[in-house]
């Protein structure tokens, strides 16, 4: 049966009471009713009773589901229809279609978020999405394009890695709608199908590439791995031949290097690579990816095509390749074969015969992998391993190598099908597969890079595609990335509530209704346990150098600042200070070090335009060496903006609990045009708590107070992280740096007070404190008591304040402040609440700069999540929420057949009085009789929350959740809604009710 526009969408003629849409299918008597953000299944009779109120608005080939977008605290829903597609070929009873046109039908009166919807529509219409449709009328969704031929013999469960519109199914699953019939499953990638004649028989030859949606995105927005071990541009490619009832299949994979890395800046043919996390911080995610590959494919071999030259344009590639090999060598999966093959060097000048060397190196390792072959219903051979190929982008070089492997295995596939007797048969298949591999490479490249593959054939074409990639990647990819995120996540989730939910809840709970998320966040204390964490934040204006290499350090060390500052301070403090720290607590190691530098390079014109990272690398190595004197520390990540540089180091045992690491920087020099002044920021989540560190360098000058205030405001406003996270959205914010706030006193008077050890008279004139008290900067931030002399400005290698001609006045320019976000306004009134306990705040006597370094040590609490308790609270919240459409259930006590007579609850007079009473809650739109109960549905006063699938059954996207009847049954668990029918005879009750009238709200 050829596919046609079998779906029809009808919309209610007369809004606004309430907005309603019906979805029909020509081969099914039942229809779907979308109303009040709920979904119900209507019988043919019930549809006929209300159909005259509706008018057709669209015809479609299929439906992808319901897309949910957050609009503030409410959600807007769109029915996503496939209105254009064409067949790319048949496989057995199934036909595969490419989506070319979609239509979004709003399930509200107003069409909201049109700009975002248009980008998602553009993505779906790009020609890289496919679905399979069974041509047999018996079952229209038997063939699942998300799983390869070998997996089809083992399971019918959809592979969620390649199920791109799975979140669009959630809304219908909440109401137990049969998604297998009503909705399509779409994959993103490439499908090439050809018919090859083998004598009197027809073989279906296909190459199917399935792009994973677990870490999907565009070339420069998504690189490397995420915290769960999913890598960018991960593609499973299947070379398969169907001949009558026989099938043979061979699967290969590609994927980005499974480390945290990126390519910063505007890219014009650049291979510059930056590792965004340190070795230890990457180990957990790397191991997860390696274990995942073993679990999914049993065994695998890595073919690493990155360049190996440490000089020239490929230096970044070589560094990335070396880190890949290093991680692999030290991982639990070091037994996995890892072949390094410098493709550009080996295949220089288009010498594809060099790939024979690669084949020879792999033959012994990959011999056990084999391929899949089934004759009739019997599995004759299985593929027991895959080759995982990668280059930098996993595009052009990977395409060539995978094509080579595919054509090499083709002869064996032909032999298994019994077609190897004739040489021309192999030639015929080779010719077909060569062209399909070229097309496949182009399609996969378009998804990730925006253009077809660069194949080395035509220099003119390859040059044009390279230029197009540059434009696409640097100018157009951000909107495409947002569209991908919306499609996969199912919502933009950019509100503060959504961000809090992402921190506390697993991904499968994030699709619950807004009221559920809000309640789960409010009740977080029931499933988290406070866990102590010690944080040290240091700041140092180093005046443009790597001073730790100076001979002056023979008597002092960075350890005096980073490790021993609190001990040395007790003997050198100008005032008496008592810290709430016992001797036992002094031995507690610091869990997280955040160290910020200013002027890490000279602020000259060349560095402002393109600052070197050499000093930053040297400081990172020295800091790690010094910090690890007693306890090991690993670099989590760093961020540099010209002279401002921020490092975060953590204890290795804490690294496994850290996720969602992100960095940002803000320029404030010359009105935001240059980075000689500005800030670097690093954020992450540890356990269930978000932390952000900021290192800043504000405008200099005694009188430039307004400019410094403006720098603070600009940095606060502009710092932004993925998924809409801002500075204020974090649980803790630590802000350090050279803020350059001065002291409004005569410099000689300041020096006299310092010499006498009297700091309080000076602090009364401190510009930062005055501006903070006036509410201009650092609102709600805390700072420890200042018990140390001003940190600026000294003569180099001296204890003397500035004796130069300018003779600048001393000042506390170098500061550390922090704040903790309150979960609710009255949180600080709780006896258990604390903003963080200051352990030490002081400076160190390192004299290689005109500044003295400062450090603050603070004990904080992070939220350790108990997953069992969280699941329990989630069930309670779902139960307390009640039915999704504000349904009130009326039941009778001791109902029997005799109760149907005069005076029973089903008597028309009693029914009328009951409905009039219930109508006070809201307009009664539907009444339904369900077994021994009557369901009354008022018109909701505000968008009603949608009941997600229950925790135990919901997120299994391969089955329809089954729910037993309960007081808060969803509409789909009962007969579909009917127009109000008071005269219809109610069903005979066959059980005892709970009695009375009540709302499940």
TrEMBL record:
Give UniProt keywords alphabetically: Hydrolase
Compositionally biased intervals (Pro residues): 972-989
Give the reaction(s) catalysed: a 1,2-diacyl-sn-glycero-3-phospho-(1D-myo-inositol-4,5-bisphosphate) + H2O = a 1,2-diacyl-sn-glycero-3-phospho-(1D-myo-inositol 4-phosphate) + phosphate
| GO MF term list | phosphatidylinositol-4,5-bisphosphate 5-phosphatase activity
UniProt lists the family membership as follows:
In the central section; belongs to the inositol 1,4,5-trisphosphate 5-phosphatase family. Belongs to the synaptojanin family.
Known CDD domains for this protein?
INPP5c_Synj
Q: What EC number(s) does this enzyme carry?
A: 3.1.3.36
Regions of biased composition (Low complexity) lie at 961-971
Q: Which InterPro entries match?
A: Endo/exonu/phosph_ase_sf (IPR036691), IP5 (IPR046985), IPPc (IPR000300), Nucleotide-bd_a/b_plait_sf (IPR012677), SAC_dom (IPR002013), SYNJ1/2_RRM (IPR015047)
Gene Ontology CC annotation, any one: presynapse
Q: Name one Pfam family in it.
A: DUF1866
Gene Ontology biological-process entries: phosphatidylinositol dephosphorylation; synaptic vesicle endocytosis
Q: What is this protein called in UniProt?
A: phosphoinositide 5-phosphatase
Q: Which Gene3D superfamilies did the record assign?
A: 3.30.70.330, Endonuclease/exonuclease/phosphatase (3.60.10.10)
Q: Where is the composition biased (Gly residues)?
A: 992-1001
Annotated region (Disordered), positions in chain = 939-1001
């Amino acid at each position: 049966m050829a596919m046609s526009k079998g779906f029809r969408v009808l919309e209610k003629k007369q809004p606004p009471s309430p907005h309603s849409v019906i979805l029909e299918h020509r081969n099914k008597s039942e229809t779907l009713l979308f109303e009040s953000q709920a979904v119900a299944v209507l019988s043919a009779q019930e549809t006929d009773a209300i159909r005259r109120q509706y008018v057709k608005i669209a015809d479609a080939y299929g439906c992808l589901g319901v897309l949910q977008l957050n609009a503030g605290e409410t959600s807007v829903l769109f029915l996503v229809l496939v209105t254009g597609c064409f067949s790319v070929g048949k496989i057995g009873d199934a036909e595969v279609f490419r989506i070319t046109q979609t239509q979004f039908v709003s399930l509200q009166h107003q069409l909201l978020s049109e700009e975002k919807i248009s980008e998602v529509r553009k993505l779906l219409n790009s020609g890289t999405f496919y679905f399979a449709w069974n041509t047999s009328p018996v079952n229209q969704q038997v063939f699942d394009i998300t799983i390869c031929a070998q997996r089809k013999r083992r399971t019918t469960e959809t592979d969620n890695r390649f199920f791109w519109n799975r979140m669009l199914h959630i809304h219908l699953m909440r109401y137990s709608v049969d998604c297998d019939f009503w909705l399509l499953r779409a994959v993103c990638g490439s499908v090439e199908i050809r018919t090859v004649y083998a004598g009197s028989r027809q073989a279906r030859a296909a190459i199917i590439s399935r792009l994973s949606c677990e870490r999907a995105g565009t070339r420069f927005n998504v690189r490397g791995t995420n915290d769960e071990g999913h890598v960018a541009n991960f593609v499973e490619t299947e070379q398969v031949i169907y001949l009558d009832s026989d099938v043979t299949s061979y699967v290969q994979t590609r994927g980005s290097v499974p480390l945290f890395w990126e390519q910063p800046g505007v890219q014009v043919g650049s291979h510059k690579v930056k590792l965004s996390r340190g070795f230890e911080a990457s180990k957990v995610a790397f191991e997860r990816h390696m274990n995942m590959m073993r679990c999914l494919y049993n065994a695998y071999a890595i073919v690493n095509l990155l360049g190996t030259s440490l000089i020239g344009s490929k230096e970044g590639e070589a560094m990335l390749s070396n880190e890949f090999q290093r991680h692999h060598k030290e991982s639990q999966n070091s037994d996995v074969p890892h072949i390094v093959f410098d493709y550009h060097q080996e295949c220089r000048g288009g010498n594809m015969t060099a790939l024979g060397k690669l084949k020879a190196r792999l033959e012994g390792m990959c011999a056990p992998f084999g391929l899949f072959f089934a004759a009739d219903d019997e599995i004759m051979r299985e593929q027991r391993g895959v080759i995982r190929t990668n280059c930098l982008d996993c595009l052009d070089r990977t395409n060539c190598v995978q094509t080579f492997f595919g054509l090499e295995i083709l002869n064996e596939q032909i032999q298994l099908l019994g077609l190897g007797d004739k040489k021309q048969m192999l030639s015929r298949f080779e010719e077909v597969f060569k062209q399909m591999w070229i097309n496949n490479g182009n399609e996969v490249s378009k998804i990730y890079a925006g253009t077809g593959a660069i194949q080395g054939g035509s220099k003119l074409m390859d040059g044009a595609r390279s230029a197009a990639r540059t434009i696409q990647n640097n100018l157009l990819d951000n909107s495409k990335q947002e569209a991908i995120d919306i499609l996969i996540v199912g919502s933009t989730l950019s509100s503060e509530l959504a961000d809090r939910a992402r921190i506390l809840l697993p991904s499968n709970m994030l699709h619950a209704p807004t009221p559920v998320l809000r309640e789960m966040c409010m009740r977080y204390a029931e499933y988290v346990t406070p866990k102590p964490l010690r944080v040290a934040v240091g700041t140092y204006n180093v005046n443009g150098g790597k001073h730790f290499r100076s001979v002056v350090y023979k008597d002092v060390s960075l350890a005096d600042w980073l490790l021993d500052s609190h001990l040395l301070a007790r003997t050198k403090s100008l005032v008496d200070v008592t810290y709430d720290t016992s001797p036992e607590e002094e031995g507690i190691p610091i869990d997280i070090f955040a160290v910020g530098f200013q002027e890490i390079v000279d602020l000259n014109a060349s560095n402002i335009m393109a600052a070197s990272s050499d000093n930053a690398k040297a400081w990172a190595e020295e800091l790690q060496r010094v910090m690890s004197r007693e306890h090991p520390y690993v670099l989590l990540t760093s961020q540099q903006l010209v002279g401002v540089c921020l490092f975060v180091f953590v204890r290795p045992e804490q690294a496994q609990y850290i996720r969602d690491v992100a960095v940002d920087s803000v320029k404030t020099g010359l009105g935001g045009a240059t980075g000689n002044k500005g800030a670097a920021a690093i954020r992450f989540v540890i356990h269930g708590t978000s932390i952000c560190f900021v290192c800043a360098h504000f405008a200099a000058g005694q009188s430039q107070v307004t400019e410094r205030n403006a720098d603070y405001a600009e940095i606060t406003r502009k710092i932004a992280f993925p998924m809409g996270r801002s500075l204020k959205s974090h649980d803790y914010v630590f802000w350090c740096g050279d803020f350059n706030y001065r002291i409004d006193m005569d410099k000689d008077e300041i020096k006299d007070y310092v010499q006498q050890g009297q700091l309080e008279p000076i602090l009364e004139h401190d510009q930062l404190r005055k501006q903070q008290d006036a509410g201009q900067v650092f609102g709600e931030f805390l700072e420890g008591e200042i018990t140390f002399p001003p940190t600026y400005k000294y003569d180099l290698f001296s204890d003397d304040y500035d004796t130069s001609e300018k003779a600048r006045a001393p000042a506390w320019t170098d500061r550390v402040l922090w704040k903790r976000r309150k979960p609710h306004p009255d949180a600080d009134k709780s006896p258990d609440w604390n903003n963080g306990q200051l352990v030490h705040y002081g400076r160190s006597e390192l004299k290689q700069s005109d500044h003295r370094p400062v450090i603050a040590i603070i004990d904080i609490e992070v939220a350790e999540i108990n997953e069992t308790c969280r699941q329990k609270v989630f069930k309670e919240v779902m139960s307390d929420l009640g039915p999704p459409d504000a349904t009130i259930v009326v039941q009778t006590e001791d109902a029997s057949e005799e109760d149907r007579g005069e005076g029973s609850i089903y008597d028309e007079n009693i029914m009328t009085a009951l409905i009039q009473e219930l109508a006070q809650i809201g307009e009664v739109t539907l009444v339904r009789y369900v077994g021994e109960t009557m369901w009354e549905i008022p018109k909701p006063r505000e968008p009603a929350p949608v009941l997600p699938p229950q925790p135990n059954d919901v997120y299994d996207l391969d089955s329809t959740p089954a729910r037993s009847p309960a007081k808060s049954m969803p509409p789909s668990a009962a007969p579909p809604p009917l127009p109000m029918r008071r005269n219809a005879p109610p069903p005979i009750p066959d059980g005892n009710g709970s009695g009375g009238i009540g709302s499940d709200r």
